[in-house]
Amino acid sequence: MKFLTLIGGRNTFKEVPPPDILNYYSTTATDTPTNTTTTFVADGLTLTPIAGTYLAFFNTESSHDISGITNVGEIGLFVGGTVVTGSERRFGIRASGISLASLETEHTPTIIIPITVNGSQAVESKFRRVTGSDVSLGKRSLVLLRIS
């Protein structure tokens, strides 16, 4: 990839090297089911980047048995053990009066949000069951792209 910079405001350009892009990436394909309402770290998704501001991208497959028709899960990003405001996402189904023997639904919750870390803080994805019975996270990725 080539980057060009304008020199002196006239049609003279100079090729310059691309900017350094610092990123962190973690992924896992392990299913992680839960029936707990206590928030916990999703296996394999903890990163501790150097100090800076990052654009965080988190994506996961999620599923749950909807025979109970009230299964709802929640995911969120945490920095240094504290939830990042605006990062929590709920997934699932709430319904009544539906008669289904056994059905499973799948969702792909996604979080894209800027975060700032001090260099010793872990960035983690945590999840929990809000209502109903079991919910699961499937394949998931956490990417941090440094923006300053």
User: Which fold name corresponds to the CATH topology?
Assistant: Jelly Rolls
Level-2 CATH architecture: Sandwich
Gap from first CA to last CA: 21 Å
Low-confidence stretches are 1-6
Task: Explain this structure.
This protein has 148 residues and is an all-beta fold. The protein has one domain (21-146): Jelly Rolls (Sandwich), CATH 2.60.120. The chain has strands at 3-6, 13-16, 23-28, 32-34, 40-47, 52-65, 72-79, 82-83, 89-92, 104-107, 110-117, 123-131, 135-146. The strands form 3 sheets. Strands 3, 4, 6, 10, 11 and 13 form a 6-stranded antiparallel β-sheet that branches. Strands 5, 7, 8, 9 and 12 form a 5-stranded antiparallel β-sheet that branches. The radius of gyration is 20 Å and the shape is elongated. The protein starts with a strand and ends with a strand. The model is unreliable at 1-6 (pLDDT under 50).
List descriptors.
single chain, about 150 residues, mainly beta, Jelly Rolls, five-stranded antiparallel sheet, about 0% helix, elongated, disordered N terminus
Task: Give the secondary structure arrangement, pairings included.
Elements: E1 3-6, E2 13-16, E3 23-28, E4 32-34, E5 40-47, E6 52-65, E7 72-79, E8 82-83, E9 89-92, E10 104-107, E11 110-117, E12 123-131, E13 135-146
Antiparallel strand pairs: 1-2, 3-13, 4-13, 5-12, 6-10, 6-11, 6-13, 7-8, 7-9, 7-12
